[in-house]
Amino acid sequence: MLLTLMSPHPQAAQDPGARAFQRCAACHSLRADDPGGPAPSLRGVIGRRAGTLDGFAYSEAMRAAGRRGVVWDEATLERFLADPETAVPGTDMPFQGGSAAERAAVIAWLRQVR
Amino acid sequence: MNRFWIALAAPLAACTLSLPASAQQVRYYDVPPGGRAHDVAVTADGKEVWWTVQRGGAHGILNPETGETTIVPLGEGSAPHGVIVGPDGDAWITDGGQNAIVRVDRETRAVRVWPLPEETGPINMNTATFDHRGRIWFTGQTGFYGRLDPATDDMKVWAAPRGRGPYGITTTPSGDVWYASLAGSHIAKVDLDTGEATIVEPPTPNQGARRVWSDSQGRIWVSEWNSGNVSVHDPRDGSWRQWKLPGEAPKTYSVYVDETDKVWLTDFSANAIVRFDPTTETFESFPSDRAGANVRQMLGRPGEVWGAESGTDRLVVIRSED
Fold first, then answer.
1. Residues 2 to 31 of B: which have CB under 8 A from any A CB?
2. pLDDT at site B322
3. Burial class of B74 by CB neighbour count within 10 A (0 to 12, 13 to 18, 19+)
4. Contacts A19 to B, Cβ<8 Å
5. Contact at CB, B142 and A25, closer than 8 angstroms
6. Beta bridge pairs of residue B73
7. Domain A16-111: CATH superfamily, name plus number
8. Cβ atoms B128, B169 nearer than 8 A
9. Do residue B36 and residue A98 have CB atoms under 8 angstroms apart?
10. From the list A11, A27, A94, which residue is nearest B183 (CB)?
11. CB contact at 8 A, B226 and A27
12. pLDDT at residue B58, rounded to an integer
């Protein structure tokens, strides 16, 4: 198979967590102030109550999850990333793919992003 | 590539709602649970409906007459997002898990994979469309779009202008290819010879253009996730028109234009499929009978439009009784 990359592009990240985050970066940013995107910024997501980033238009399902007390940590993020629509029925976010190892890597990497 | 498939006899679950306004019949089909059905495609003869088993890494096949389903695994790590019917009649799939274009032969169920090289990293393969030269164009949400020529295996990938965001993609009757950029909030036309993408800005800033579909006139209809609008761009004169979907805080996920130029949308806030008539500028809503349906894409054939409810693992069809 002949493949040609026709324009300069960023090299795929080397850190496993940053590389796994490439899937997330299609919709999520890491900017401190990013209320208008298709998905909420994940800066500081570890420890954040679900559905509470100011200015983002969450689904009612995600806001309800926060009201129920769901806080994003390693366990809740693993369950959510493994099957978003089971963890939070009615969430807007679809399953993104990736292995359990990739999920663990991106969660560990997000812990560092403050 | 080994091929095998599992035939499952799924109970035929049907729920029919009659709506007086335009004589449409809604019907639901259960598919094996847990797979998180994402995109659908119906064959031209209507005998098979395909869906991407995104969480199950497989190609799903529904016989709409019997309700029987068949599951074809696509390979290690597969997480298919989009499926279309190719000019060869086969299923062509954008597989975000394998970072590849995948084809499933309709007759033999044989699977062939064209992966992107490892060094590109996952581009979050999203949607595909064929141009009139037999080449399949695809989007990658991390900021790429590309083209595979199945006749030669030649694959080219371009970095999208303004980076992350490429999502839906469509081909006009004249053969032009356009894609939408969700994170970039724009649509773009691709030069079929050079591959260069030219951005066209919708009038609503930060609208979140998620999917696009062409009507019979080559006008580009856009589902705007952030704004809750449906908009249309006419490349002939550069014009735009837009309409807000009904209800409170709509979130317009997908758009499909049928053979009569009626515009089919999905609104996550309303948990509904919404039909828009551009002539009368009126909306007609078809809410799901289950919460959290999440229909992320629609596709059809004359007289019927199909969608997949990722939240309930069902396929839904709306058939015109006219």
1. none
2. 62
3. buried
4. 121-122
5. yes
6. B58
7. Cytochrome c-like domain (1.10.760.10)
8. yes
9. no
10. A27
11. no
12. 98
CA atoms within 13 A on the CB side of B280: 9
Residue contact B119–A8, C-beta within 8 A: no
Name the pLDDT band for B181 (thresholds 50, 70, 90): very high
- The per-residue pLDDT for B4 is 40
Of chain B, the percentage scoring pLDDT greater than 90 comes to 89
The pLDDT tens digits for B53-94 are 999 999 999 999 999 999 999 999 999 999 999 999 999 999
**Which secondary structure element, helix H or strand E, spans residue A109, and what is its range?**
helix A100-111
Cβ–Cβ gap A92/B156 under 8 Å: no
Decide: B196 and A6 in contact? Cβ < 8 Å.
Answer: no
Distances (CA, A) of B106 to B47, B63, B308: 11, 13, 20
The interface predicted TM-score of the complex, written ipTM, equals 0.86
Give one word for A51, left, alpha or beta, with left for phi > 0 and alpha for psi -120 to 50. left
Question: What CATH number does domain B6-320 carry, 3.40.50.980, 3.40.50.300, 2.130.10.10, 3.40.630.30?
Answer: 2.130.10.10
Does residue A72 have a pLDDT over 80?
Answer: yes
Q: Are B116 and B157 in contact (CB under 8 A)?
A: yes
Inter-chain CB proximity A9 and B208 less than 8 Å: no
Letter for the amino acid at B227?
S
Length of chain A: 114
What pLDDT is stored for residue B122 in this prediction?
82
